[in-house]
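Section 5.1 Outputs to date
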Amino acid sequence: MSMDPIKDRVLKRVTWVVTAVAAGLLLTADYGPQPHALSTIQKSLHNLKEWFWTPSKVEVEQLQRSHHIDLDKRDSSTGKHD
């Protein structure tokens, strides 16, 4: 007995979404300061985010030249100028 193809497709998509959300919650949860089973993976994800979102020195220089901004005087926690 097979399911309706539309219902089957919806079920598969819902399963993928629920799995992705559960994985995201597990990897981003705060388990406290002690090392745990997901510490290495969480550290790798943090390093990947830092690498992706942090501009290189060359990019900072290009931004400063093209937009006449001083990124060194920004407060990193708030993004506001001194």
